[in-house]
Amino acid sequence: MSGRRGERVTGRHAGAGSSARKQLAGFLTRFDPRVAAVGKAALAKMRRRVPGATELVYDNYNALVIGFGPTERASEAVLSIALFPRWVNLFFLQGARLADPLGLLQGEGTRVRRVLVRDAAVLDAPGVKALIAQAVAASPIPFDGQRRRRMVIKSVSAKQRRRRPKASAS
After folding, report:
1. What is the pLDDT of residues 53-77, one digit of tens each?
2. What is the pLDDT of residue 153?
3. Which one is predicted more confidently, 16 or 100?
C-alpha cells in the first residue's frame, strides 16, 4: 500500500481503510498540543536526517515511540523519537558507543542515551546532527537513502498511561 510522498505503509495493526500514517496522526492527537507539535516537528526533521529509514511505531504503555532503522526489525533500529505526556526525547539506541565530545547525551545505561527535545530546533544543533549521523553510520546494516520511507505500526498497547498531564491545582 502506498502513502503520500512515496511512503509505503504496512503493519498488522492497520485496519481496513486506514493507514499507518493516519494511525500515527491519531496517536499524536491524544497528547497535549505543545508536546504533539514538538513531536511532529521532530519527526519531520528526523525524516530528512535519515532518508530511507523504516519507521517503527509503538504506541506503548508509557510513551508513543517512533523508531528509525534500516529494516522492519526492531533490533536494527538505531534512533527513536519518544513522546511522553510532558516532553519528547530523541533516543540513541546504541548511544553508549557514540563519541560525544560535547556531552550532549544523557543517561547512564549500558546502551541507550537520550537528548531532551524541548523544541525541534534541538535537532538542528551541530552536535546533535553529528550524533545522528554517527548513529546512522554505525548501523551494522546500512540505510539505503534511495529507498522510499516506510512506516510500520508494530504494536498498540491496550492499556496506556494518560497522554496528557493531569491539570495542576491552582
Report:
1. 999 999 998 999 999 999 999 999 9
2. 92
3. 100
3-state helix, strand, coil in the chain (%, to 5): 30, 20, 45
What length does the chain have?
A: 170
- DSSP letters of 44-84? HHHHHHSTTPEEEEEE-SS-EEEEEESSS-GGG--EEEEE-
Q: Are 22 and 162 in contact (CB under 8 A)?
A: no
Domain ranges in the chain? 4-154
CB atoms within 10 A of CB 91: 21
Q: What is the pLDDT of residues 98-135, one digit of tens each?
A: 999 999 999 999 999 999 999 999 999 999 999 999 99
Burial class (CB in 10 A: 0-12, 13-18, 19+), 147: middle
Say how far apart CA 135 and CA 98 lie, in whole Å: 7
Question: Rounded to whole angstroms, how far apart are CA atoms 143 and 67?
Answer: 13
Exposed/middle/buried for residue 51 (C-beta within 10 Å: 0-12, 13-18, 19+)? middle
Residue tagged 565530545 (cell numbers): 101
Report the C-alpha dihedral over residues 26, 83, 128, 51, rounded to 10 degrees.
-30
- The residue that leads in pLDDT, 165 or 42, is 42
